[in-house]
Automatic annotation (TrEMBL):
The keyword Disulfide bond does not apply. The gene is SV2B. GO terms for cellular component: neuron projection; synaptic vesicle membrane. It is a multi-pass membrane protein. This is Synaptic vesicle glycoprotein 2B. Residues 1-12, 45-58 have a biased composition (Basic and acidic residues).
Length: 699
């Protein structure tokens, strides 16, 4: 959005050309003095603010009562009948229509700029007249469910990975790709669907976005192969990636300037609720590995797939509820659909007034300002170019017109995402590392044991057997977990129905031994000598069904991390309109950077969980303020596009953060901590140079 200095400059440029207008036409113009519009002329057709009395001739056409057999016309309803002044205006415009083609392009743009400025202030007055009540709160919960679905999507893959690993035999690289593919889909979806929302409408594109997410999230719970599951999560992420830019653009256009910062911040709480919902559902569903069903030996529907289905519920609920909500009237005004916009604004007004017990209150708006349409290059492209050309032109024009603000916002979004998402992955990885260290410290070592004619039918866990001899022993219906046999001898032994996890035989000699229905595959025998040994009917697929205590702790960590942002959400909502967006972003990022340095003292699981909660609680205010200022800086025709581009860059930062921070787990804490804190400091200081937007109307 243009700053106030740019607005004044637009008005000065207006003086570059003057056209003679008759006295009737002059009375139709807005007059703007010292930031306030004067009262409208009695015979104008614009929205009449304040308590100015309407002329009798306007009252007869604009405020009517009565009905016929087909329609019921309520007091104050828009009649769709052209105002007499409008007819005169159209007649005057027909003659010089051809002359407009030869007018200086800068003059036309300056006039459009002034018209848009007038429309922005008039729309603000209309929203204030409509009030803030039942309609906004209904939309709040509908869009909140969509934002909740976005929060759920971030956590789903991380929670199902341990169980999906068992069903799909995932390698470490497979698991890493599955974790990143969702962010990749969200990055593409934010840019693509955000741009479409400025062209097709907020409601329509949000429905498309949620429908894609719901369909492919549902499908992903049933597919068995890794490749197909990966594809479904990619497209599911693409769908949900469009929700964030559309939701904030959509909701902001029903809010007045005084309510916008606070209520957009309250809306951000649904992302937190999504994280809590996902954590709670994972905790209560996934450990029940027996939940589900099997069809033969090839198809298995286990508890983690039930969890994936449950996580699609917020998306489906929002999709259904959205069908009953209207399109953004601000978007409709931008594309010239003034009658539809008027009807929706009247619906908002009447809904709120009935809820307040004032159904007799009349919606006084009879006419809304129409900005002058200019045949810009992007409009030409919309009818002659390909979809790819239109998309690229929209992005390039957004960047060119708001270059400096977009560059600064891009850096702030990127540094925030790099630090936040990098640390969010690093925290649970470090907790696992501490757990593995503690687990390894409890390992039992057996040296030179000799066992013969013995039947092993119980679980062996976290053991190392060195230089042992096993003769005529049977290993039947048992499990090995984290067991290593080194320099050992197995002679005339029998293994049947054996399941293993992280179990290896190193430098062993195996003589005349039979392996029947086991998962002791070739790669688990390292530098071993196999003499007259037989492998029969090896197990197919993955059969790891050990209960992992680590999984429960990860659910708890994610739950506490999501819950810890509640105080930050409340504080940011209450203070957003008091201290401003810029101070909120800069202060939150700098406090988060200080929190990063305390991670040097996180040498245990409990300490790491505590510092994670503190970091999440401190950083959430910056996220909320970033969402608000991004909405307010850009005009209606570029709002969702700009938000989508910046949010796509955010997801790119998340991918980099996940990859970089995870690579240092178990190696050093210095690099992740210094990288996160320096990025937060740099982004926070740069954010202080952004223009403050809390006093601006939505352009």
């Amino acid at each position: 959005m243009l700053g106030s200095c740019r607005m004044d400059e637009g008005y000065r440029n207006r003086n570059l050309y003057q056209r003679s207008r008759d006295s009737n036409q002059a009375s139709d113009d807005y007059r703007y003095q010292d930031g306030n519009y004067e009262g409208y002329a009695p015979d104008d057709g614009y929205y009449r603010g304040g308590d100015e009395p309407a002329h009798e001739e306007d009252a007869q056409s604009d405020v009517t009562e009565g009905h016929d057999e087909d329609d019921e016309v309520y007091e104050g309803e828009y009649q769709g009948i052209p105002h007499p002044d409008d007819i005169k205006e159209k007649q005057k415009k027909r003659a010089p229509a051809m002359a407009d083609e030869y007018r200086d392009r800068a003059d036309l743009m300056a006039e459009r700029m002034e018209d848009e400025e007038q429309l922005a202030h008039q729309y603000e007055n209309i929203i204030e007249e409509c009030g803030h009540g039942r309609f906004q709160w209904t939309l709040f919960f509908v869009l909140g469910l969509a934002l909740m679905a976005d929060g759920v999507e971030v956590f789903v893959v991380g929670f199902v990975l341990p169980s999906a690993e068992k069903d799909m035999c995932l390698t470490s690289s497979n698991k890493g790709m599955l974790g990143l593919i969702v962010y990749l889909g969200m990055m593409v979806g934010a840019v693509m669907l955000g741009g479409l929302a400025d062209k097709l409408g907020r409601k329509k594109c949000l429905i498309i976005s949620l429908a894609i997410n719901a369909a492919f999230a549902f499908l992903s719970s049933f597919v068995q192969g890794y490749g197909f599951f990966l594809f479904c999560r990619l497209i599911s992420g693409l769908g949900i990636g469009g929700t964030l830019p559309i939701v904030f653009a959509y909701f902001s256009e029903f809010l007045s300037r005084e309510k916008r910062g606070e209520h957009l911040s309250w809306l951000c709480m649904f992302w937190m609720i999504g994280g809590i919902f996902a954590s709670a559902m994972a905790w209560s569903i996934i450990p029940h590995y027996g939940w589900g069903f099997s069809m033969g030996t090839k198809y298995h529907f286990h508890s983690w797939r039930v969890f994936v289905l449950v996580c699609a519920l917020p998306c489906i609920a929002s999709l259904v509820a959205l069908k009953f909500m209207p399109e953004s009237p601000r978007f409709l005004l931008e594309i010239g659909k003034h009658d539809e916009a008027w009807m929706i604004l009247k619906q908002v007004h009447d809904t709120n007034m009935r809820a307040k017990g004032e159904p007799e209150r009349v919606f006084t708006v009879s006419y809304i300002k129409t900005p002058k349409q200019v045949d810009e290059f992007i409009e030409i492209q919309s009818s002659t170019g390909t979809w790819y050309q239109r998309w690229m032109v929209r992005i390039s024009t957004t960047f060119k017109q708001y270059r400096m603000n977009t560059l600064m916002l891009a850096v702030v979004w990127f540094t925030m995402a790099l630090s936040y998402y990098g640390l969010i992955v690093w925290f649970p990885d470090m907790i696992r590392y501490f757990q593995e260290e503690a687990y390894e410290s409890r390992v039992k070592v057996f040296d030179e044991e000799e066992v013969s004619h013995f039947t092993f039918n119980f679980t062996l866990e976290n053991q190392i057997h060195r230089n042992g001899e096993y003769r005529n022993d049977k290993f039947i219906g048992m499990k090995f977990k984290e067991v290593r046999f080194e320099h050992s001898l197995f002679e005339d032994c029998y293994f049947e129905d054996v399941t293993s996890s992280e179990t290896f035989f190193e430098n062993c000699t195996i003589i005349s031994t039979v392996f029947y229905n086991t998962d002791l595959y070739e790669h688990k025998f390292i530098n071993c000598r196999l003499i007259n040994s037989t492998f029969m009917k090896e197990k197919e697929g993955c059969h790891l069904d050990f209960e992992e205590d680590n999984d429960f702790l990860i659910y708890l960590v994610s739950f506490l991390g999501s819950l810890s942002v509640l105080p930050g959400n409340i504080i940011s909502a209450l203070l957003m309109d008091k201290i401003g967006r810029i101070k909120m972003i800069g202060g939150s990022m700098l406090i988060s950077a200080v929190c990063c340095f305390f991670l040097f003292f996180g040498n245990s699981e409990s300490a790491m969980i505590g510092w994670q909660c503190l970091f999440c609680g401190a950083s959430i205010a910056a996220w909320n303020a970033l969402d608000v200022i991004t909405v307010e800086l850009y005009p209606t025709d570029k709002r969702a596009t700009a938000f989508g581009i910046l949010n796509g860059l955010c997801k790119f930062g998340a991918i980099l953060g996940n990859s970089i921070f995870a690579s240092f787990v178990g190696i050093t804490k210095v690099v992740p901590i210094l990288l996160a804190s320096s990025a937060l400091v740099g982004g926070g200081l740069l954010a202080l140079r952004l223009p403050e937007t809390r006093e601006q109307v939505l352009m």
